[in-house]
UniProtKB/TrEMBL annotation:
Keywords associated with the record: Heme, Iron, Metal-binding, Signal
UniProt-listed Gene3D superfamilies: Cytochrome c-like domain, TolB, C-terminal domain
Full protein name: C-type cytochrome
Keyword Iron listed: yes
MF term (GO), any: metal ion binding
Secretion signal, residue range per the UniProt entry: 1-18
Domain Cytochrome c: 23-103
Amino acid sequence: MKFALPLALLGLATAAHAAPSAARLPDAARLYQNNCASCHGVKLEGATAPSLADKQWLHGTPTRANLSKIIAKGLPDKGMPGWEGTLDKAQIAALADYVAPGGRKATAAAPVVAQSDTVQSGQDDGLARLTLPKGFSIAVYAENVDTARSMAVSPGGIVYVGSRKAGKVYAVVDENGDRKADKVVTIASGLDNPIGVTLLDGALYVAEIGRVIRFDAIDRNYANKPAYKVVKDDLPNDKWHGEKIIKAGPDGKLYIPVGSPCNTCDKDDEVYSKIWRMNPDGTGWEMVANGIRNTVGFAWHPVTKDLWFTDNGPDEMGDNNPSCELNVAPKAGMHFGFPYCHGGVVPDPKFGAGRSCAQFTPPVAKLGPHVAPLGLAFYSGTQFPSQYRNQVFVAEHGSWNRTQKIGYKVSLVTLQGNQEVSTTTFIDGFLQGDDVSGRPVDIAIAPDGAMLISDDHAGKIYRVTYTGNTGK
């Protein structure tokens, strides 16, 4: 859901464009950050969707009329929905002015630029907005981690982080032990949306859209622009749900999803909509689970070693359907319903005919419609109170085209065996009305038991600690 295009490139810019009203541009900047930045980038540089900052346009001249039409109606064949049901005409016009050539220059010159600063200061001061259970605190562990996505933490505490459009892999290092990163080192750049990172036998594996690469002895070499070896280079390179996480399982194999190359389509007999695994050298490619639209998070239960994963439900079925999912696959070969059944209970209007949702494995927890659950982690440390141990935390990236935004938080799913007991909010406040200060992506547990959370919207890593009375 979150990978569809909220705007679109429109053609080679040749026509002059009238300067937009300065008074409305700060609000347009906020609209853009809240609704478009997750796909087109905070600075319009592009992410899963193309750049809006260069001079290349694909769908006509960037006049206000043409931009407004495309924003309102979308480009369904490109995966971009229309926004006319979510934004009003004035908001669409303001966005059209903002993304047009020269639109941001007027923002910089606007006498009311202090309103635009509110967006930035809201990101800088976002911690004050956040709420956590009593006894917990949150701090910024690292900044300037552009489009931070998946994380992997080495036994020595180095945090390796993938990214989206930035095309970089980072090492986030706390050299002096003060529990705040001292430096963010770029290990590699120029990669193709390398969102997935994992550690196995001292090597860092990185998943790009079409391949997996490996950096050996990474803790020793991260600062020296290390060379990499290509492990596998024949993964599907579709852009829609084409980004790939990667996780090392307890069996010593590497697990990689291949998402659906569409909103909803039947590719059940192809490589898509499945979780796969392979040996560390790229051999032994085999299917693990089927019927999965777009998972961007795996974790294994610390005790049972069962595979748990999130899945993002389809768009274009209304604000309240279907629910995104938390699933468990205790054995290989299970089918979780996509594209025939969504959320365990909603038959697909096109592909569900002649099938029953009872044929498929239902989710353990229905997390809510369009909340975009991404990374997850079982709490395996000892710093948090005992009731959190072996329970699963889920990063909800947040909706992008729902009329009323939802998600933008970290949830706690309390389990009894493989059954949901409750789902509650653990961290809230990244969303205030329509203002977004952060979008949680992945969760990792540090060696000292602190929780780390990546945020690709703010380009930060947060650190959550328990400071209450651990004796209770």
